[in-house]
Amino acid sequence: MEHRKTYNAKEIKTPRGNIIIEGPISAQKLADLEFHKDLIAFRPPEQQKKALIEIAGLPEGRIIIARYRDIIVGYVTFVYPDPLERWSEGKMENLIELGAIEVIPEYRGTGTGKNLIMVSMMDDAMEDYIIITTEYYWHWDLKGTGLNVWEYRKVMEKMMNAGGLEWYATDDPEISSHPANCLMAKIGKRVDLDSVQKFDRLRFMNRFMY
């Protein structure tokens, strides 16, 4: 499968100044930009920047960033699911995962996260994919936001809805382990029926195990 990537950009006004949401960004451009010191949700900033550069270099990898001048203040990643996750078991070339989304505390509540998702979906090539995201409450910054599990889940759902992702049922044990966890997905307009059925089988793998 050919992984087409078309760059899109959008400027948004925030109380902290205007920021640019753009991507997919090349590995080279990422390397040239500064990574904000508060982007620490997944690993230390320098390590996370290195991980994003690697993703940007993958054929299917997509990084959309939020940038204040030359400083990255938020990003979202799209990449094939982790080989250890059930979502990779179907070996589907047209299934990609929204793997991480992060916005520094200073820009939360400004619509930055929502716009990162919206700009991601502005690329027509996204209609060729089933895009999934798995939300686990233990990844959420409940302490930093002061929200409870259900309030945070509502915020995440609203943000994903902005890009057309919707809640999907699954019997995945990790997702089923807590009612706030969820699978969300968007099935592109050009995804064939065979792929949709494959995705359904991945969502419900345990029903066939007797």
From TrEMBL:
UniProt-listed InterPro entries: AcuA, Acyl_CoA_acyltransferase, GNAT_dom
A GO molecular-function descriptor: acetoin dehydrogenase (NAD+) activity
Superkingdom of the organism of origin: Bacteria
Pfam families assigned: Acetyltransf_1 (PF00583)
PROSITE patterns documented for this protein: GNAT
UniProtKB keywords: Transferase
Ranges of residues in domain N-acetyltransferase: 23-189
GO BP: any one term: acetoin catabolic process
Protein's UniProt name: GNAT family N-acetyltransferase
Record organism: Cytobacillus dafuensis (Bacillus dafuensis)
